Amino acid sequence: FNVFTRSVQIWKVTPVQPLSLSTAAREQHTRVQPRALLRDDAGYTLIELLVVLGILAMLAGMVAPQVLRYLGTARSETAKTQINSLLSATELYYLDVGSYPPAELGLKALVETPPQAKRWNGPYLKKSVANLVDPWGKPYIYQIPGKHGAVDIFSLGRDGQTGGTGEDSDIGSW
Fold first, then answer.
1. Which tens digits make up the pLDDT trace of 66-76?
2. Is residue 47 within 8 Å of 3, Cβ to Cβ?
3. Structural contact between residues 107 and 76, judged by C-beta atoms closer than 8 angstroms
4. How many CA atoms lie within 13 A of 70 on its CB side?
5. Within its chain, how far is the Cα of 119 from the centroid?
6. Which tens digits make up the pLDDT trace of 61-109?
7. HSE-up of residue 59 (Cα within 13 Å, Cβ side)
8. Per-position DSSP letters for the chain, written without gaps between them
């Protein structure tokens, strides 16, 4: 048995033609005969498969860093969009209640009725508490009074620490 060649079995139907039968009867009497066919080019060699796998590995090595970089910037852009949405919701809360959500309640006051807010007209976000976490799964930080405005809403990025560059940088409402 050779690994690099295949033996292909093909079945050929050949009619058996007895001398004493009519044409209709001859069509009914057929037999199946196997015919072996050896082909030298029936498959790929090991070298050919290794060359193809090498080319695919090189392509994956070139494309993967670009895809990962794109995913990182997509998370940062998502965080910016969510922070702007949260900031708009706090502004609506301010217009209804007359003050920003208190620090002890934080952003949960946008989705759950606070006990001291008489004119609360929420929820101010379509999604519940699930919308209060950044793309890295950490809760957004809400500060009142803020350093950059009346309120600050921000994420500490992928690393969860202040400062950083790239995906680890802080993303805020300022």
1. 887 777 678 88
2. no
3. no
4. 5
5. 41
6. 988 888 877 776 788 888 888 888 889 888 988 988 888 888 888 888 8
7. 6
8. --TT-EEEEEEEEEE---TTS-HHHHHH-EEEEEEEEEETTSS--HHHHHHHHHHHHHHHHHHHHHHHHHHHHHHHHHHHHHHHHHHHHHHHHHHHHSSPPPTTTGGGGGTS--TT-TT-----SSS-GGGGB-TTSPBPEEESS-SSSSSEEEE-TTTTSSS-SGGGS-EE--
* Residue 110 burial (C-beta neighbours within 10 Å; 0-12, 13-18, 19+): buried
Q: Which two tokens stand for residue 130?
A: 């699930």
Q: What is the pTM of this model?
A: 0.57
- d(CA 122, CA 110) in angstroms, rounded, equals 7
Cis peptide before 18 (omega within 30 of 0): no
Q: Residue 123, preceding bond cis, omega within 30 degrees? A: yes
Name the pLDDT band for 12 (thresholds 50, 70, 90).
low
Q: Does the pLDDT at position 51 exceed 90?
A: yes
pLDDT digits (tens, 9 = 90+) for 16-41: 555 555 655 555 555 544 545 555 55
Structure tokens at 46: 């090991």
Nearest to 147 by CA among 172, 122, 171, 112: 172
